[in-house]
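Exercise 7.
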Amino acid sequence: MFCFQCEQTANEKGCTQIGVCGKTPEVAALQDLLIYLLKRLSHVAIQARKENILDEKIDIFACKALFST
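Solution. The predicted structure, written as tokens, is:
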């Protein structure tokens, strides 16, 4: 397991095993997937804004999803 989200590890290098936060490898993988998908969604939202297409629901979803990790 390697966790990109952990801010609690020694030397700020990320978790390499279940440790400080107790997160399982499955949860770490799902959080990484969520972050990846949010990056893709953000790219689409930016392109849509260039065409004057705005959707507040996407903005709210992205914020809530990001803070859930």
